[in-house]
Specification:
Blueprint: H1 6-24, E1 27-31, E2 34-38, E3 47-49, H2 59-70, E4 77-80, H3 86-94, E5 98-109, E6 128-132, H4 138-150, H5 161-171, E7 176-183, E8 186-196, E9 199-207, H6 216-230, E10 235-240, H7 245-252, E11 256-265
Parallel strand pairs: 3-4, 9-10
Antiparallel strand pairs: 1-2, 2-3, 4-11, 5-10, 5-11, 6-7, 7-8, 8-9
Helix pairs in contact: 4-5
Domain N-acetyltransferase: 128-276
GO molecular function, one term: acyltransferase activity, transferring groups other than amino-acyl groups
Pfam families: Acetyltransf_1 (PF00583)
């Protein structure tokens, strides 16, 4: 990334992840340079994040990390970049943490010269509009959350009330923007972004099954890159599961892999797993 080193990118991304979780969770606690966050069983914000760069954690801090989650009935989960101190990995392994999954961090520089809509391989999808949601319009925010979360649920599974509440809370934060893709008046896709510290993170993208493969996700990416540039960001970032359509669509629009994140969990009987 030329003037951006991978470790610089990782510090920005992991700090954003930690701050976002701490802002959304009902319970939070700072730990070292990062945060512990818990929003109840099943929540995707249950995590320890942003730790392990500056110094190893003490035994007492590691005990605090585990107790923070277990006393709330959820499995401890730690999200890490590959740039953390090796001592932290060793300490977590000794306490029973195991690798659950990887997530790839994809980045792209934002430039005043680029026309992001012109980057779409097949052009802008015919008849599709992408609009920014008014965070003060409760009905519009609810519609956005329902579409954005639909891709993370099983077909026909209702949106849990806790997920709806958390999603609406997220949209109302000043750092976040929400976008809906429509065919006429029908909402067919959605995605959010968050801008801070010169970085715009794109996340939570879903496209309804009948509209997939038509460039809708790419259009949502382009619209959010435009928003990031408006907000003064120099970098856009997408965190994606390895090899899924999101990663492929990001690559087509100029995103490149910066690093892989590791998600570690400590399993224990009677604790609810956190959503990923």
């Amino acid at each position: 990334m030329n003037d951006w080193s991978f470790i610089d990118i990782a510090r920005l991304v992991e700090r954003r992840q930690a701050l976002a979780a701490s802002e959304l969770a009902r319970e939070r606690r700072p730990l070292a340079e990062g945060w512990l966050a818990c929003d109840g069983p099943g929540s995707y914000v249950n995590k320890a994040c942003g730790i392990g760069y500056e110094r190893p954690l003490t035994d007492a801090e590691l005990d605090e990390l585990i107790a923070f989650f277990t006393t709330r009935g959820v499995e401890p989960r730690v999200e890490l970049s590959p740039f953390v101190l090796p001592a932290l990995l060793n300490a977590l392994a000794q306490r029973g943490f195991v690798l659950q999954q990887f997530a790839n961090v994809l980045v792209r520089k934002l430039s005043e010269k680029d026309s992001y809509r012109e980057l779409l391989p097949l052009g802008w999808p015919t008849g599709i509009t992408v609009e920014r949601v008014n965070p003060e319009d409760d009905a519009a925010v609810r519609e956005y959350v329902e579409v954005a979360e639909s891709g993370f649920l099983q077909d026909g599974e209702p949106l849990p009330p806790a997920f709806l509440e958390l999603g609406m809370k997220a949209v109302r934060r000043p750092v976040q923007d929400a976008f809906l893709a429509r065919q006429g008046r029908e909402p067919i896709g959605a995605g959010g972004c968050e801008s801070r510290d010169g970085l715009t993170a794109l996340f939570g993208t879903s496209v309804k099954p009948a509209w997939r493969g038509r460039g809708v996700q790419q259009a949502l990416i382009a619209a959010r890159m435009e928003r990031g540039r408006e907000q003064g960001s120099q970098l856009a970032v997408i965190i994606s599961g390895p090899g899924i359509p999101t990663e492929r669509n990001a690559a087509r629009l100029g995103f490149a892999m910066a690093y892989s994140r590791a998600i570690l969990v400590k399993h224990s009987a009677g604790l609810a797993p956190s959503s990923t």
